[in-house]
Amino acid sequence: MIPTIEWKEGVVRILDQSRLPDEVSFVDCKDYRMVAHCIRELIIRGAPAIGIAAAMGLALGAREIDTADYDKFIVRFSEIADTIASTRPTAVNLFWAIERIRGLVNKNKGKSVEDIRSLVCDEAKNILEEDISSNRQIGRNGAKLIEDGDTVLTHCNAGALATGGYGTALGVIRAAHEEGKKIKVFADETRPVLQGARLTAWELKEDGIDVTLITDNMAGYMMSRDLVDLCIVGADRIAANGDTANKIGTYTVAVLAREHGIPFYVAAPSSTVDGSISSGNEIVIEERNPEEVTHIMGKIRVAPIGVSVANPAFDVTPARYITAIITEKGVFKPEEIGKTLGS
Ligand code: MRU
Q1: Is this model's pTM higher than 0.90 or not?
Q2: 169 close to 159: Cβ distance less than 8 angstroms
Q3: Which of 131, 188, 216, 236 does the annotation list as catalytic?
Q4: Same domain flag for 124 and 180
Q5: Both 70 and 215 in a single domain?
Q6: Does the beta carbon of 46 lie inside 6 Å of ligand 1?
Q7: Which residues are CB-contacts of 104 (< 8 A; sequence separation ≥ 6)?
Q8: Do the beta carbons of residue 94 and residue 87 sit within 8 Å?
Q9: 236 a catalytic residue
Q10: Structural domain range at position 193
Q11: Residue 343 has pLDDT above 80, yes or no
């Protein structure tokens, strides 16, 4: 699989997901502003990948602060962190990564600014490596829930592209496939930005996993015909009570799964659990550009000029619809997640 994001001698190389599946191209970010632009414009997207990009953006930012004085350094560093934090509001991994790097900078106040710059860079690379190994563990933990011959429905893209590599929801599917289980996947296309059609279908096809693309409004039909055994999705933020924000349309899938008695799993690293909020009501939902709805991929207009548009990028699935949350630390009931992982 092509790396989603890499640190290459002072340049952050990002696979341009806005051009997939037609074009495999990269954006070489030489400063944090470019990384922030890539996050905002979905050139890199998916909660864990956004967190990694934020950390690498901070590493680039730290390199351009031209001072040896810690107090001056920290003022500018905080401004850079604020810029990166303002890119997207919902995925908690963005803020988690920024706080992890900020904590490291604060803890090493006694060291030279030069040393701090290199510590930040090493930490950003660690976040990438840890994410990949977390995803492999999520895969191993979740694969036990998939039986040979199962058909899995997934929504959006929670794959290698949405993470440092391997994926969360798709990591579980990959691990089951690697164990030799014969599985089929329905990938919801995921309007309006089509992460399912453009990214999930592409990733699974590349890996030789049996994938069938459906439009979002076909999920209920597939379930009603007994064609789906379980659903697995990723997460952008999990509240202490297990309520889970994920791509718009996830809630619909969860309600449909309940109606048809189909297990509905969320797969996410523990960095996606936000123990500071008690329920999903506190999750800020990003509202994106109306053009994502009125146009297909910014190109073909499918609505009348001037029509009012709503474009919430995420919804919240209440914990009661979630069968279990698969993490690298184990598989938990949603109501257990806050006390187990929410510190
Ligand atoms: O707007 P996006 O493409 O960043 O939304 C991505 C999702 O909703 C994913 O399902 C989620 O971030 C989990 S990725 C492992």
Answers
A1: yes
A2: yes
A3: 236
A4: no
A5: no
A6: yes
A7: 119, 120, 123
A8: yes
A9: yes
A10: 140-341
A11: no
